[in-house]
Specification:
heterodimer, A: 276 residues, mainly alpha, B: 430 residues, D-Maltodextrin-Binding Protein, domain 2, seven-stranded mixed β-sheet, 16 helices
Chain lengths: 276, 430
């Protein structure tokens, strides 16, 4: 009896989970299917559920209409450069906020947190004018630099850095290690999961970033993926096959990135929530 | 206590913000003495951008020293970039810009010095070459050209020939909106198909077409809200009757209209001429099954003609090559061959009246049941009644959509809802 009951239980649980899986995978599957069909077929009833053979054609027309390869390069270059630099800055700043005593530390940190609450619309135009006066319109720098000191990244690193025992750092100092050596060889090494979490977060932020690149980039050969994809949506005509393929290409890296680093990501997000 | 401790910092941040937003700089009036050489950039979208690109070839035959660069964005993105650029006193803006006609008043109102006055550069001499309704939509309230007219969207009712035949309805017999409703009932009974798609709570396009065919819009000449006119009540009553007879497919947004069209969920779609391209692209297998008739009339009066959409070219004042930009705009909007290029290849219906003499307009379209649909649309363009569109058009459009939803979905009375909508709109635009 008991076994049967738990079997029934299992069936219920699994079917719920299955429904959940279908709901969350469904749109991705649909997007992928759409990417392999010509535009008109997407509205067919009954809907196409199997992959078509139009993938290559869609890619070729994407390459023709957007210069897709250059776009992917732009996106990768901007997102990766940003991720590396910004993770490093987040770690360094977080370390300073967590482990150094200096005047006004908490106040500065508080102000940093406040900046999270400023809506982007407020800073958009002043920042834009700043870029104009630096003559940085339509450059990679203008996309990468303004967000480098990313408050949430710094915050997350600070919370994690707090868990490093002071005695460890002091021991290193006594052994004669310089501050930079302590930071790079000891602190960063112990902070790997948190670094991974921050890196994923920053990568996703920059990879999906839309409004700022849109405003600051003016020529199509500089566009990032979200900006380029947006230009595919016409007034009266949309090539849904191309659009779906573009969307697939822009979600794939994040999915891969996340799947590889998900263990670190989850432990990193939780890290700092429990203090010993 | 804690709050007080942080107060100086909050004040500090706030004052930074205020300073940043009020920072005054010199006005971007670094206009170089114009020259018809150099490079100009154009922002556009979609097939319009492709047309602009195509046009550069012939343009360069006449102006070999002007290099033209066209950038293709999504239309909403163009507006986003334009707003930021204008707010930053013209920084980073292109030399020529595409804009939908209904947006022009709100931009020229918000940024009165943002765009070059084309009348001052001599565009007035072309006025006679365009239809009165298009000319009105690109002029400011002083009667000066702010934009150069490009495409228009004369309206018609696209219908499924096979459904109409099956139900024994002769499209030529549909003269008034009452006839249209009667035809719809018949079609519904025999084929089970609804008559037309409307996104009831978001789309006021059908209502607006009905107003324009009677020569009015949401505003009177003074720019005040005017949606309680007899014309408006008539129009909303027709939409209510369509809905009451279960002839309206309530769909969601643009994709909903396309899906309903392609899947045969509706027997007709009242829309602008550019919808021909959409139907052809998304339903290539329905060749011969579609045709068009003019909007039905109101028996009380008015025409059978209206306009949906259309766009024009503007020159932002920040351009440092006004002459070259104007040369392009002048050439592009008044050259018959160039205008035909965009029409033949991409279906962008020109407003330049001379183009309608082109034999292409006389051709029968095999997709559209071998009818001369383009000739039909072309003939209607000069007849479309000019209407007043103001800066508050988008707001009016939303308010009217809400009223439409209340009338249809909640069964409220037409007069009461329009009254309330007008009052609400008046308060909002004061």
């Amino acid at each position: 009896m008991r076994n049967q009951y738990s079997l029934l239980n299992k069936i219920v649980i699994y079917s719920f989970l299955l429904i959940g899986v279908i709901i969350s995978i469904g749109p991705f599957y649909w997007m992928f299917i759409g990417a392999t069909h010509p535009s008109g077929e997407i509205f067919n009833i009954p809907p196409q559920l199997l992959p078509g053979d139009y993938l290559v054609e869609n890619f070729i027309s994407l390459q023709e209409s957007l210069g897709m390869l250059k776009i992917i390069w732009n996106s990768l270059f901007i997102a990766l450069t940003f991720t590396v630099l910004s993770t490093l800055i987040s770690a360094a700043a977080g370390y300073a906020f967590a482990k150094f005593q200096f005047k006004g530390r908490d106040k500065i940190f508080f102000m940093l947190l406040l900046t999270i609450m400023i809506p982007y619309q407020v800073t958009l135009i002043p920042l834009f004018e700043l870029m104009v006066s630096l003559e940085w319109l339509n450059t990679y720098s203008a996309v990468i630099l303004p967000n480098l000191a990313f408050p949430f990244g710094i915050y997350l690193m600070r919370q994690n850095m707090k868990s490093i025992p002071d005695s460890l750092i002091e021991a290193a100092r006594i052994d004669g290690a310089g501050e930079f050596r302590i930071f790079f060889t000891i602190v960063l090494a112990t902070m790997r999961p948190a670094l991974a979490a921050v890196a994923i977060f920053l990568f996703m932020f920059q990879w999906n970033n839309f409004i700022w690149p849109l405003v600051i980039l003016n020529s199509s050969e500089m566009f990032t993926l979200p900006v380029a994809l947006s230009s595919l949506i016409g007034m009266a005509r949309v090539d849904y096959g191309q659009l779906m393929l573009g969307a697939t290409l822009s979600t794939l890296p994040i999915m891969i990135f996340f799947l590889i680093l998900q263990k670190q990501f989850i432990s990193g997000i939780l890290g700092g929530s429990v203090k010993e | 206590m804690k709050k007080v401790k942080h107060l100086p910092f909050i004040i500090g941040i706030l004052s930074c913000l205020i300073l940043a937003s009020c920072s005054s700089g010199k006005n971007g009036s670094n206009n170089v003495e114009g020259k018809t050489a150099g490079e100009i950039t154009i922002w556009g979208w979609d097939v319009a951008a492709d047309t602009l690109e195509l046009a550069t070839e012939k343009f360069n035959e006449r102006y070999p020293d002007i290099k033209v660069k066209v950038e293709n964005f999504n239309s909403d993105d163009v507006y986003e970039k334009l707003t930021v650029g204008l707010a930053a006193r013209g920084s980073g803006l292109p030399d020529v810009l595409l804009m939908e006609d209904e947006r022009i008043p709100s931009y020229t109102n918000q940024f009165p010095k943002g765009f070059v006055n084309l009348s001052k550069l001599g565009y007035d001499k072309y006025e006679e070459r365009f239809s009165p309704s298009k000319v009105k939509s690109v002029k400011n309230d002083k009667g000066e050209f702010i934009a150069a007219p490009w495409d228009v969207g004369p309206a018609g009712v696209f219908y499924r020939v096979d459904y109409f035949e099956e139900a024994g309805v002769d499209p030529d017999s549909i003269k008034t909106w009452e006839d249209y409703i009667e035809a719809g009932k018949k079609i519904k009974k025999i084929t089970g198909t609804k008559l037309l798609p409307i996104d009831i709570s978001k789309y006021d396009g059908v209502f607006h077409m009905m107003l324009q065919q009677q020569g009015v819009s949401y505003f009177n000449e003074k720019g005040e809200a005017a949606i309680t006119s007899d014309e408006a009540i008539r129009a909303m009553s027709v939409i209510r009757d369509l809905y009451k007879n279960d002839l309206v497919a309530n769909i969601d947004g643009w994709d909903g209209i396309v899906t309903a069209t392609v899947n045969g969920k509706v027997a007709s779609v009242p829309y602008g001429v550019w919808y021909t391209g959409t139907i052809k692209d998304q339903a290539p297998d329905q060749k011969g099954k579609w045709d068009v008739f003019y909007l039905p009339k109101f028996k009380e009066g008015g025409t059978r003609y209206a306009n949906v959409g259309g766009s024009s070219l503007l020159i932002p004042s920040s351009t440092n090559n006004k002459e070259a930009a104007y040369s392009f705009v002048e050439f592009f909007t008044t050259d018959v061959e160039t205008q035909m290029l965009g029409f033949k290849k991409y279906g962008l219906f020109p407003s330049l009246l001379k183009t309608y003499d082109d034999p292409f307009f006389n051709e029968e379209s095999d997709y559209f049941n071998n009818s001369k649909i383009f000739q039909m649309f072309a003939e209607s363009v000069p007849e479309v009644p000019p209407i007043t569109i103001t800066k508050d058009f988008a707001r009016a459009s939303r308010t009217v959509s809400n009223a439409q939803a209340a009338v249809l979905l909640e069964g409220e009375s037409v007069e009461r809802e329009l009254d309330q909508a007008e009052e609400k709109l008046e308060n909002e635009i004061k």
